[in-house]
Amino acid sequence: MYDTIAIRHAEARDLEAVLALLCNLELPTGGVREHFRRFFVAESEGTIVGCVGMEVYERASLLRSLAVAKDRQSRGLGSQLTQYIITEAARLGVHEIVLLTTTADRFFRRFGFEKIAREEAPRDVYKSVEFQSACPTTATCMRLRLAPKSRD
Ligand SMILES: CC(C)(COP(=O)(O)OP(=O)(O)OC[C@H]1O[C@@H](n2cnc3c(N)ncnc32)[C@H](O)[C@@H]1OP(=O)(O)O)[C@@H](O)C(=O)NCCC(=O)NCCS
Predict the structure, then answer these.
(1) pLDDT tens digits, residue range 21-30?
(2) Residue 107 CB–ligand 1 contact under 6 Å
(3) Is 51 in the pocket of ligand 1 (CB under 6 A)?
């Protein structure tokens, strides 16, 4: 039987565990500390087993650091975390989410992300640490456009 996993906003005390998880999955850690207030974590019995984060810029947001511990993968947690961050972006009025991935482009396509050239990413996202140094230049760049919030 699977144990209960809760997804919640990250707190300062989660930072070390999130960095360890990212290192374990060979994902970039540059900029995580600075943007940690826009991270979500998945917790199981006091252990951080997943995370996802977002860097919010004026013209778009960067989805980053989607990670699920190896022994928890393929049970839907990655999808849940992705849906959480998309919902959060919509709540914040973000029009466009951009991401870079070296391995999971097929995964993100399920949520409507489409491949774009890196240079097509909005300027402020393009200048982020992840774009400029943390993620390999061979990584695939993807974009999801969100419907503008209705005004009523
Ligand atoms: C990508 C990742 C977050 C997915 O997490 P997960 O909990 O295994 O995802 P889910 O269980 O929700 O997967 C749903 C489906 O996506 C598929 N999937 C998972 N990872 C995939 C990948 N890298 N490429 C293509 N499909 C993938 C699964 O096979 C599953 O398919 P199914 O529903 O037909 O069985 C996880 O594999 C991971 O942490 N990978 C290493 C870090 C990484 O690459 N992060 C993304 C860069 S930001």
Answers:
(1) 999 999 999 9
(2) yes
(3) no
